Hints:
Layout: H1 3-19, H2 30-38, E1 49-52, E2 63-67, E3 70-74, H3 96-111, H4 118-121, E4 129-130, E5 136-140, H5 145-150, H6 157-168, E6 177-180, H7 204-221, E7 225-229, H8 231-237, H9 244-247, E8 252-253, E9 266-270, H10 273-278, H11 283-297
Amino acid sequence: MSKTSVSRLARELKQFLAAQQEDDLIVAAAPKAAAMVSSAKTEEKQAPQVLFQQPVETQTTSKIAHSGDTLTIEFRRPASVHSAPILQEDSSMMTKSQKETALKELAEKIKNCSRCPLGSTRLNAVPGEGNVNADLMFVGEGPGFDEDRQGRPFVGRAGQLLDKMIVAMGLTREQVYIANIAKCHPMIDPSNPDKHGNDRAPNADEIACCRKYLEEQISIICPKYIVALGGVSAKALIADAKSLGALRGKFYDLHLDQVTLPRKVQILATFHPAALLRNPGWKKDAWLDLQMVMDKLGLKGARK
């Protein structure tokens, strides 16, 4: 086999590997391989068989070598190739300042978002707020009338009840992170944004548009536990899509669509504070749910 043929073969291999998204193929060794091949019998009629060595984690160099009728290509890949990809930077290694910067940049994207019709009817986007190093995160459904005007999550009557629930756990609002599935106000009648009682839950399309923002928030903060407030957020984040009643009372490992978390995060479903205002009899059950989280975090509750 001629030197030109081997060079051409090396080029074709490079193009093939590039198309397959392989990395770090070093073709500088091709001339050496060609010299080895040129010393073989020129009358050889059969082209050499090409074998691709499996990536080895300790392998640090790439080479092309020839032995008999086999041309072997070895190429270097990162040692992490065998592990699950992390699409977001390992947030457990991010400093508080880095998290704050990342969340601020994400908030600007949310404020300028027009991926769904909610972006054209909102008064203010509501990204979320709280402790960027929080161990506990609350995720609701979507902003309401008051949140739309202030650009902050859970500031209306339901938010006031949530504040009391957080204090009862032995925490403050400033120690947790609070967000929603939808980042803009879903309204029954978008043409009348000043009407009270115009709130509704986000629909599937709106959730799909906003989901990537919430997933990025979770990946940056990387809390130990998430409390899903209400059936909409619970069924959106827990793969086992049952009713809220069936989902309650159990922790689930959180699995996101677009982000692989750097550590395990668990999620628990409970009633939305707005539902508790309508049905005060459910408060006892909600408190039992929160006590499960308190037990996990070693919280004793508020002092009386």
